[in-house]
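Protocol step 4 of 5: obtain the predicted structure for the target chain.
Materials: sequence only (see below). No template structures provided, no constraints applied. The aim of this step is simply to have a reference model before the mutagenesis design in step 5. Sequence pasted as it appears in the construct record:
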Amino acid sequence: MPDFSYRKYVIAGAALIIVIVYILRLFALQVMSEDYRKSADSNAFLKKIDYPARGVIYDRNGKLLVYNQPSYDVMVVMNEVGEHLDTLAFCNTLGITKEYFIKRMADIKDRSKNPGYSRFVQQVFLTQLDEKDFAIFREKLYRFAGFSIQRRTLRQYQYPYAAHVLGDIAEVSQRDIDADEYYQRGDYIGKLGVERSYEKQLRGEKGMQVLLRDARGRVQGRYQNGKFDRKPVAGKNLTLGIDIELQALGERLMEGKIGSIVALDPKTGEVLCMVSSPSYDPRLMTGRKRGKSHHALEMDVWKPLLNRSIMGQYPPGSTFKTSQALTFITEGILSPTTAFPCHHGFSYKGLHVGCHGHSSPIALVGALSTSCNGYFCWGLYYMIGNRKKYGKPLNAMNTWRDYMVSMGFGYRLGIDLPGEKRGLIPNGTYYDNAYKGSWNGLTIISISIGQGEVNLTPLQIANLGATIANRGYFYTPHVVKSVQGEPLDTLYTNKRYTKASAKAYDLVVAGMRSSVLGGTCKALGSMPFEVCGKTGTAQNRGQDHSVFMGFAPMNDPKIAVAVYVENGGFGADYGVPIGGLIMEKYLTGKLSASSEKRASDFQHRRIAYGSRNR
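Step 4 output (structure tokens):
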């Protein structure tokens, strides 16, 4: 006869399991499930984000450069879109096609393209309606259930200049969202320039309104009279070191040319102008046309999106001789009176490095003034070969490298712009690897005149000028002069000293002044202030590059300038006159009539580059 004595335990156990399953399911639905929570919230509340005004941007003289204008996004909550939506009327009102509508709605629902999608949460359908389109759509909005309008701001640019410095904003990518929980789909973020570097200061803080809805989804007002609302906090304004009139002149002078102009205030490290040519009008990168404009610029073979001032890595040519003089004098390799012969160049053991005609033999000040190749080749040869002081070439080379690094070469300076390149300063190990340990000063002689493996950015060349102007120190170059309500990073306010001696700097200043009075920069000798300059003619596979580095006034420096014109020939052809015009404009506030005529001439000069990619 069967034993049913355990039946009650089986029934009780089954009942207990069912109860536990129901409890777990209810917990999952009510507590763990994001969708059900969002559904419940969306039925009762509408959380509306209030976007803050983005901080505006001024130049050093208080001129408004970047500001905001109202813009409107069309938002959609998929769960509320009515089955009887008049799609044709909706598309006609917004000026879009039915095909676009279908694709856009599908893209919003596609979690591979929109990972944060929820049918209960507002999604961006269309961005950046202007005032006219907004007014038309608002009148008919009541007909389109589930759709609403979100007010935003759109960046506007007062001038067609400084695109590489100012940058632009665009819709966030998924990577941006993953990196910072502040952002959600449809938000905007700085993509280039100071818009990117100072994104957190410029963006402000979002606010939020919690609105109460009835059973039919109609907004009834603010929940608990706004008790849980949060007001937006406007972004902080920026004042740049840029002088927009100086920037405009620089961009004029570089029309039809490839290269860069960088001007710094030696006393602060502020960037006074930063020209990269070719450039583009920053107003092309605003609104719904940004994507198409960006693509066109990206496909341009002359690469206008490239900021050559901080990304271009070039041989510095003879501007680099100033750094060699500083090193050789400080290390005691040469004295101020040491003179070398230069019979149209450096010639030793079958090696010849050419030079133009000038007096010979020649000492340091004269060598800088005339840009003598022979003098600096001999200086490097004696430094690398000084076994008594350094033991072997590798040690001498590493000492040389340390001097260069202290002057801001070989590594990023740290400017407050994205994308800065470091250039190249070789060390002893570099040459040991390249020449299997068998090399000497003759092997690498070209680096003494800014050729060979040495590469600098135009910013680094300008910073060299600022360092000489200051007689041995520099401030890390920076575009932003001040941020509303907060101090600048100490990176930009602390002095950075080089390894070279004060005596060496005085000699180099004398050489650069001599260059203006009667040497390779003599075209600047008639300026109404004391200019110190150094030309560079950087060798190239084609036409040489024209380079200039200088500062003024000599004993109270207010501006240091570097000019780099690709394939511009001798330094005196383009670099010197363009640098002089930049100095005159900044120091006197205007160009004289003759200088304005010369500026117009350079503005209309074109260099034939051919069609190859650069």
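Step 4 remarks: The chain has a mean pLDDT of 90. The CA atoms of residues 76 and 147 lie 4 Å apart.
Proceed to step 5.
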